[in-house]
Amino acid sequence: MSRLAQVLLAVAALIGLVVGWRAFWFLCDDAFIEFRYVANVHKGLGFVWNAPPFSPVEGYTSFLWVALLEGVWRLTGAEPPESAPWLSLGLSAGTVLLVVAAAVRLPLAASWEPYRPWVAAGVLVSTLTNRTFLTWTSSGLETSLWTFVFALWAFAAVYLRAPDVVLVGLAALAALVRPDGLLLVATSAAFVAARAWRDRKPAQLVAWLPIAAVVAHLLWRHHTYGWWLPNTYYAKHVGPWPLMGVAYVTSFVVEFAYWPQVVLLGLASWAAVRARAVPDVGDPVVLGLGTIALHWAYYTFDVGGDHFEYRVYQHLVPVLALASPVLAGRAGWSVRRASLAFVAAWLLGLVIPWTHYAATYNWPETHTSIKDRKGSFRLPMVWRVPLPFAPYAYAWDGLQLALNSHFVCIRWHGHRTYLEYQKDRWHMVHNGALPDLKGDIGVLPHTSIGWPAWKFQDWAMIDEHGLSDVAVAHSPPVHTSQFNRLMAHDHSAPKGYSACYRPNLKLTKQGVLFTPRATPLTAEEVHACEAKFGPARR
Q1: What are the pLDDT digits (tens) for 483-519?
Q2: Where in the sequence is the domain holding 461, given as residue range(s)?
Q3: Is residue 452 a part of any domain in this protein?
Q4: Burial classification of residue 251, based on how many CB atoms lie within 10 Å of its CB (0-12 exposed, 13-18 middle, 19 or more buried)
Q5: With contact defined as beta carbons under 8 Å apart, do 402 and 247 qualify?
Q6: Domain count, the chain
């Protein structure tokens, strides 16, 4: 492809991204949990949920995202709810440009080479019309940062054949974005070790040096919070959930009609088995694809998917788009045959997600009652899609029912609407004024600590589902079966735990009710409650 064609392709892709970002712009209620941490860092309190005398809790998922938002706030004055969507757009633009760069470098079969411009355009159209990719270009969560760093690491490994120290450095950066970045660190370190062993050059292990940053962060985490993993992991991960994971990935395949990709991946796997091929662990392509497969398997079969709509699969959308023409060429498919299969599947994959979007894009404005705004917002498609697609939509409806019943794969419009519901019910008392705590510590226990965590930053909040509470996160889960679990909602506060803090704030139907204490809550009482109900540090 000519340089001009590549530039035009990149410009068109960025325009498409902005259009999609605007269409799916939203802030998720859970993003305000991280925004509260940003606010406390900005105040000089550090990465804490509640101010002292409460002990620090790591209830945020991404250290780097919190630090980035705070840095932007400090430099520009833009608070996280304002800056986060724009940062996500910029990071998503970086991802799209990496996809463009990868598309024009694809190792196509010889018969496919004359059609490279069309292949590159198809990769971008497939990516930028996929609602999973577009949904997580905003949200306020760290997803776009993770996808960009993951894409940068994969591009450096597969296409640039970057020096080992660069790969390990990018992997270390990913580990600061999300804990699952530790997988990239492990595979990158193993890759460097394999090459050093193969080449008989132990000095190559100096490329492990960036891992020191990961070790330093782990030691800081343990010193600050008392645990090797974030509190969110213990709150969400009760045990392996493969049944839900199978439903999650099946729903993803059905919704976006990834049937040709499934067939091609199956053919490629079968060919490798028949050839008894042994992967070369020193091959950067094996490193990239193997890490992607392991990450997918972890979230699918161990975690069981995600509470948010295919969020953990966002980075897979461009990967599948890029892999499709390569796998088709290696399988011996002609350009004509593959084009027919891919275009037909792409058109089928537009029906459900975009019909769903059309039915829900103005949901927060049209569903104004509390009853309408609560819950998982299931919306069957069987009656909304054109009649020939009804059986296909019926199968998808069944999968979504199974997922949403367990708080898995809650849809975009549900999160948008729930935030509006949160704002409605957390109205203040005293004609809109906050209560005068008279020098006491305001303590408010609740199960839905998102938007109020940001709005009422000076109050200590007891997160009774445990995302930002160690005692709750490490308490015995109330749901343990494959059939009764609720994603990220399997823990509840131990009996007597919330009452131990003598809470003086409570959410009622009339608003936030303030009940003054006879004597102020002391730091000694707070520490005693944490010691009585909390687990031992380890």
Answers
A1: 889 998 898 999 999 999 999 988 887 778 888 899 9
A2: 425-533
A3: yes
A4: buried
A5: yes
A6: 1
